Amino acid sequence: MKNIIILDNKDSSIRRIRDIIRYSKIKVENIIECSSELEAYNGIKRSNVDLLIIGITNSNKDGIILAKKIKKLRLKTNIIAISERDNTSDIIELLRCGVREYFSSEFEDYELITTIKSLEEEYKEEESEIGDKVPLLYEQLKYLLLQDDIDINIANNLNSVLSKHIINISYKIICTNYEMKSKINNNCLLFQNIKGHNIIMIKADKAQNFIDKNLSALDIGVSKEYTDIKFLIDALSEGIQGREEKFFMQLSKKDFATENISIEENELEKFIQLIGTSRLDSNYNYLKRLVMAVKRCEISPRSFLELSKEIYNKIHNTYSGIIIDEHIKIEELENPFAYTNIDIYCETIYKLILRINNNLINNYDYYRNRIKIEKAVQYINKNYKKNKIDELYYRMGNALLREIKTEVIKKNDNKSFIKNYSYTNLVLTAKDIKRLKKVFDKDFEKIKNELAYERLQREIEYSHSM
Predict the structure, then answer these.
(1) In terms of Cα–Cα distance, which of 147, 169, 172 is closest to 156?
(2) Which segment of 43-52, 65-74, 432-441 scores lowest on mean pLDDT?
(3) pLDDT-derived band of residue 434, with 50, 70 and 90 as boundaries?
(4) Could you tell me if 26 and 117 are in contact, meaning their C-beta atoms sit under 8 angstroms apart?
(5) Cα 274 to Cα 159, 271, 279, 356, distances in angstroms
(6) Distance of CA 195 to the CA centre of its chain
(7) What is the pLDDT of residues 308-351, one digit of tens each?
């Protein structure tokens, strides 16, 4: 047994019972001594008490009053009464209050020891029985949590089982992204990924202490206290609503439009195509504007979730097949509620995009040379007049790109470079080539993919037309 409370207004009686228990070698974690009914009652409410031993005198009926309260609350606490009142009506009243065993004040030590050991065996058997049923109970509760409506038959069955072994069914639902080491323990159950959240079903009297100890730094949602499994979906809805309000960090309340706001396909494609370029700040600014729109209630939470799913799918489909890096885990973005709030989630999106961007530029020729082309375009736009730019774009064409594919520009070898382009079809002057070459790296690797560079040419023309 874990906790035993001894209630008696005589110190000598308390000492005797305490010494009997200790010398009997019965394993008890705590023996709590109380001199009043209120003190004992508060002790029972604060912690799970396995056994209450009450002393009843001719002038004090506190023990009887307490036994009645425990029966009314349906607390799973065994009661032994030791009474100076030896009339039949008092004994019957005690038994009606749920007292398991009655002794007169002249009891023998061995009688109390035998009774406590018998109750301890019952306690162990019940613990073993409920322990065997816990996996099944867990799966049934999880099934209910995944449904939109409660299954009354399963709920009633769970009520029946829990009532038999626990008596006091009183629970709260906590919605969070916190993960416990174990899904099942004495006070609570963890259900992962219920509608995107981690759900903790916990004994109501243990909830606040658990929150203070483990969840004080997190944004969570907590339901009110319930005493029937048929209200499990209601408790779940309360918990999720509370957490999502904190997750989206909305600054004001506002009725959302019935139509969900969605991003245009070409805009989303542009968001993805900017990865692997020098213009990644545009993605960062876009995410910041998106977060602020949600906080200001300009975009509904549902619309944001749909949009974040689109972004995730695009990134996953575009880059997961070509990026092999243990530090880049695109799958982590799939569930926004795995993060504490919308700010942290969108920051994580950008950090992941930044990693992908750096990986692409450092390891893939196409993206590395794409940056070079962009810098060349920036140089041209900065240093050439408008009419000269138009003429230069026309001159460059695909012919130049095909030639670059087969030639290697060597360090400080301007003459050989010009010589390769000295035939009549080439209209670029040496001065033009020199200007372009300054923008490119001095060492070029052979370009292996002609189609890729033709695509780059189209992107240059597209960028120029914007």
Answers:
(1) 169
(2) 432-441
(3) low
(4) yes
(5) 56, 6, 6, 11
(6) 11
(7) 888 888 888 888 766 666 666 778 788 999 999 999 999 999 98
Gap between the Cα atoms of 422 and 207, Å rounded: 82
- The C-alpha angle 258, 271, 262, rounded to 5 degrees, equals 10
Structure tokens at 268: 């989303």
Cα separations in angstroms, 436 against 170, 182, 361, 396, 440: 75, 62, 21, 11, 7
Distance between first and last Cα of the chain:
78
Contact 351, 437 (CB under 8 A): no
| Exposure string over 20-49, b if 16+ CB within 10 A, otherwise e | bbeebebebeebbbbeebeebbebbeeebb
Q: Are 350 and 319 in contact (CB under 8 A)?
A: no
Cβ-based neighbours of 167, under 8 Å, separated by 6 or more: 74, 75, 76
Nearby residues of 295 by Cβ (< 8 Å), 6 or more positions away: 248, 249, 250, 251, 342
In what order do the strands lie in the sheet containing 101-104?
A: 30-34, 3-7, 51-56, 78-83, 101-104
State the pTM of this model.
0.60
Query: Secondary structure of the chain in the HEC alphabet?
Result: CCEEEEECCCHHHHHHHHHHHHHCCCCCCEEEEECCHHHHHHHHHHCCCCEEEEEEECCECHHHHHHHHHHHHCCCCEEEEEECCCCHHHHHHHHHCCCCEEEECCCCHHHHHHHHHHHHHHHHHHHHHHHHHHHHHHHHHHHHHCCCCCCHHHHHHHHHHHHHHCCCCCEEEEEECCCCCCCECCCEEEEEEECCEEEEEEEHHHHHHHHHHHHCCCCCEECCCECCHHHHHHHHHHHHHHHHHHHHCCCCCCCCCCCCCCCCHHHHHHHHHCCCCCCCHHHHHHHHHHHHHHHCCCCCHHHHHHHHHHHHHHHHHHHCCCCCCCCCCHHHHCCHHHCCCHHHHHHHHHHHHHHHHHHHHHHCHHHHHHHHHHHHHHHHHHHCCHHHHHHHHHHHHHHHHHHHHHCCCCCCCHHHHHHHCCCCCCCCCHHHHHHHHHHCCCCCCCCCCHHHHHHHHHHHHHHHHC
pLDDT tens digit string along 190-236?
999 999 999 999 988 889 999 999 998 888 999 999 989 999 999 99
3-state secondary structure 94-150: HHHCCCCEEEECCCCHHHHHHHHHHHHHHHHHHHHHHHHHHHHHHHHHHHHHCCCCC
